[in-house]
Design goal:
Length: about 290
């Protein structure tokens, strides 16, 4: 098994080299972590014996006339190309339904290819060729707006992670929540807890963005949905989105592997009428 994984990782390295030559500008292809390549190379050469993390990167694609831009997020399992890659495309030029249709079309195209063959460059070309048709689809399907605006749906998500340490990940969580007008918090350390509340579509977009490409040990433990009759803000338990840092215990060197004081966290939940969530998150009753 390890031999076939090693062969797959060799092919992944080869494909990345081809992509870098295909996209010479640094801003056109961005790795999720710059350590991916040396870690994989060390494993392939037998210097490293533990499996490297999954490869993840983003390719920024433009149509031939450069009028439409899209970003294709790529996540590769260790056994790619014998298994399909995980791909997700976003574009400011597309509406929600067109995003769904485009990603379904791309997924169908990838499924039609022979497993064992590298396919990211094929996916890039497919995107360049087909992206304009989805833009046209928006124009054809546009209908006059109804006099009655659709009422938004309020949503609150309680997300549990084994830990949240990395500075760039914390920044991504904070930036994404603020960009989508979500309130709530991110409890960093071990465990890591995230709460977001706001419009349902925005919460789901946040959840999709932060867990991509393959964040292990993260799950949505509980979600609440309410039809809005007044305003979204009247349903919020939190006034903004903030990072929580409580007293910690345990410090194991460079990893900063510390556990948050859950008593303080329980008090914080009580202050925001959410103490019942403690048992949902941890399986035990909370105490100050």
């Amino acid at each position: 098994m390890s031999a076939s994984i090693r062969e797959c990782l060799e092919l992944q390295l080869l494909e990345m080299e081809m992509l870098f030559s295909m996209f010479p500008n640094k801003e056109d292809i961005i790795l999720d972590d710059a350590k991916f390549v040396p870690s994989i190379r060390n494993y392939v050469e037998g210097i490293q014996h533990t499996l490297p993390p999954f490869v993840g990167y983003t390719v920024f694609v433009k149509t031939e006339d450069e009028k439409v831009k899209a970003e294709m997020h790529v996540s590769l399992p260790h056994s790619y190309p014998t298994k399909e890659p995980q791909l997700f495309v976003r574009s400011d030029s597309l509406e929600k339904q067109q995003h769904n249709d485009l990603n379904k079309g791309l997924s169908s195209f990838i499924s039609s290819l022979d497993r064992g063959d590298l396919c990211i460059m094929n996916a890039v070309q497919w995107l360049k060729d087909n992206l304009p048709s989805y833009i046209q689809n928006i124009k054809h399907n546009t209908e006059p707006e109804s006099d009655l605006k659709r009422l938004p749906t309020f949503h609150r998500m309680w997300i549990y992670s084994h830990h949240i340490y990395r500075q760039e990940l914390k920044k991504k969580i904070l930036d994404c929540a603020k960009c989508l007008n979500l309130s709530g918090f991110c409890l960093t350390g071990k465990p890591g807890i995230i709460c977001v509340e706001g419009e349902k579509d925005h919460c789901e977009e946040f959840w999709r963005d932060i867990r991509y490409p393959n964040w292990k040990h993260i799950s949505c433990k509980h979600a609440e949905t309410i039809e809005v009759t007044g305003t979204i803000d009247n349903l919020r338990l939190f006034t903004s989105f903030e990072e929580l840092i409580f007293a910690a215990h345990g410090d194991y060197g460079l990893r900063n592997d510390y556990h948050m004081d859950l008593g303080q966290f329980f008090d914080y939940l009580k202050q925001h009428q959410s103490e019942h969530i403690f048992q949902i998150l941890f399986g035990i009753e909370g105490r100050s």
